[in-house]
Structures
1.
Amino acid sequence: MKPVFSLTNHNLRSYIYHYLIFAINHDTLIHGFIILSINVIPFRTLRFETASDSHKMVHANASNFAEGVTKDEAYTQVLLQAEGLFEGQRNWVCNLANAASLLWHAYKSLPQPSNQVNWAGFYTLDPQAASSKQQLILGPFQGKVACQTIAFGKGVCGTAAETQTTQLVPDVERFPGHIACDGDSKSEIVVPITVETEGNGEKARKLVAIIDIDCADLSGFDEVDKKYLEQLAELLGRSCDW
């Protein structure tokens, strides 16, 4: 049985969620299409084995994006696919690795400047660093080899980590203290991933990781990127055991 379904943005998440539950219960491979606006995005994500099998088989086509997709549609697919991939999986290495792949393929499906993204990945809080000298350590990514550690407050990544605020940088050369891991990078966006903590009866947000995206073009990112990457950061924050 290979059901095919089409739907618009109305109640999209609810419909997909219940469809995935149907697939789990009926041991079927999902093949369908999500219609967003006037474009069609192929949606092939998960195959679930029998109820006795605890392993989820991931379909590689989750990283496929339709030709001519808009940025909003590509990010929407990233979020939907990520939510499906994270279902039942809370290991942060696994989830960050798949998220990096989804982002990389999404950017490569888009026109310039998005398709000029030359690094997409994550840095995480280094658990071995002293509390007085917090730093980030390289996590899963797509692109060239990168800086291994970055101190809080240093460069775009360190600033995002220390302030827990998104850094949208149209020209990295104009950013004070920019760390040039790759001289080809011209613009950058860094989004903090935080989780809620509680101590002494007070709630606070703890930085656990950052999303880091570099582009070989100036002004490679805008408010659309910021909006969706912050949604991805929130999803990752609550979907992983940090």
2.
Amino acid sequence: MTSTSPPFPLFRLPYLPLDKVLRSFECGDLIEFSTCSKRCKQIVKSTRNEFTGIKIQIMRNFFSLMVDSNNGLESMWMSSENDFDENVRYFMLSGENIKIQGVNSLFHVFYPPQSRKLIFTSLVDHIVEILQIPIISVDFTTDQFDRFLQFVPSVSNSRRISFYGDTAMSRGDREFVRNIVNPDCELTFWPPI
């Protein structure tokens, strides 16, 4: 059925009603809405929210980004090797098309392996910027993950970064991490040397 009524003039609302409308959005919907245009991005950035931070897990073939609030997990973005065509949308971030499938507050991110770092970095930067929240923690699982150090600069402002693996990181790799991250960042290396 086709509607003959004009579209709702969302952008013509005064700030307080617009803020109230956007606060009723789910976290994932806000993130999606912010990718529609520069204006949408600015509006989402100006919206007050109750999100407290982002937690990240990253390993050889997988990453997850979890947006938390005082009420718990609000939205989860995770990489997926399974490629679906149902309910798929594309976001343009940092010049890359990012294929997303959202179900409730869980979003699967599909990407070609050669674009993994760029897409991960773009998604983290975008979520942190528009929701204006800190990266609370990052957990790296380093087993069979040769290039994990390439991801450290994109999460260097995290409050806590942990590295877990079957073998200890070299002293040189540990020093590289210490030199790149925020000095207030709590670092954990397991196993210890």
3.
Amino acid sequence: MSRRQSELEGRLDDMLSRIAMETQEIKELEQQLTDGQILANEVLQRDLEGIISGLQEYLRGLRDQARRSQQQVDSLQAENQSLQLHLEDSQRHCRQLEDRARTHTQDMSVQQEELSVLRTEAHALRDRQVESSRQQEELEVELQQLREELARQVTLGQLERGALLAAVDKEKQSTEIRECQLQATIDTLQDEKSSLQQITLRLQAQLDQTRTQYTETRDHLDQTRLQLDRFTAAMLDPQEVQSGPDDLDEDKYRYHYYNFIFQQDLAPAQTARSTKTWFDVHAITVLDWPANSPDLNPTENLWGILKRKMRGTRPNNKEELTASIKEIWASITPRQCHVASRQ
């Protein structure tokens, strides 16, 4: 099929080359002929062009036929390859069957050898059984001797048991004596405990008396402080002193005795009208605090450092949380507080 295709392609190439040569000759003749001849040659050229187009269509048909033939060849080759693969698989399967047959034959021979060995072993076992029966008789004689020895050992064991029971009775008597001694010691300790309880009760009475004295002293101190606050208020506002000592606002002038300036930030709860009124009523000076100012209170900086370091921990319960806070609090240095206050 491929040789025929090559022959057809060669013939087509020859025809196309001849047509090209004839076309070239026609072009050369057109340059030499007159107008009438040129018209005749044009008709001839159109005929030739029709012939050429027909040959080209025939050539395309031949090429399509060759392509289909090539496809058939390819499909046949593929089938041939698949058949060859199937043949190889069949041959391989046959070889495997032959190998299995040889292996089975070898196994049969090995089994026959094992059977002969088993027969030999059976004869040997019969001989051993006879020997075992003789040994069994000897063992029975030895067993009788062992029974007699066991009887003697049991008698000795009973004697030793009696001795051990006597030793146990003696140890029991000594244990009872020790228990009596321990009971006497316990009674002595109980007596000491009762005496200690009496001492504790006396100390408790003394403690209650001391607490009572402490309470009376504290009340006396509060009265003295109240009188001192009244005296201070009299020095600050003589008009209220003239109105009478009983009319003084003790809570209002309580803080005059302490000369201080109160500092706080601009939190909503601290800048409320009620808070400012309370400070004015009690005559407390509050430090002016601008908005968006850094914290001057070092405790705030400490809480900030602690909060940032706690973000890296993952406590699972309250105890782990408390331990983490204590550990981080102990690791904060004064320099860290100083740096945080300057940021």
4.
Amino acid sequence: MRISLLDFANYLHQNSAFLHSFQIARRRQRDPSPDHQSQMYISCGEIESARLAFDELLQPSVFLWNAMIRAYAWNGPFGHAVELYQRMLDIGIEPNKFTFPFVLKACSALEALADGILIHEHAKKVGLELDVFVSTALLDMYLKCGCLEDAHEVLCKMPQKDVAWNA
């Protein structure tokens, strides 16, 4: 019997909680880590389950922080993406060039200009303001918040303006 990749993905999505319980019950020699569980849940769209596994981790990687922030920025609640970003900073995890576009997307959805400005300042501080993805996310955030002058300033500074037209 052959199954398609789509059928398998649907099966995983529908049974992710069962699979997690099964993995724990079996207590195989290589138990899945909360890191892997979070990634599995995120890929299945089970954001709250991913968050529970994420919160079990003592030191999540920047990759996993970004994955959780991205999951909230795309699926909501958008405020959770901003809260995770702030928590990341509070415990000393340095955001990277992927973190900023994700959290700025959440700010755009929330029209959270004050948060967006603080995030913009942080991107400047760490030298990522001119990264094409960061600057495009900044442009989008300022436009959605109705700050045309700030958006124009970001656009004028962008090294690659051709990719910004989607914003």
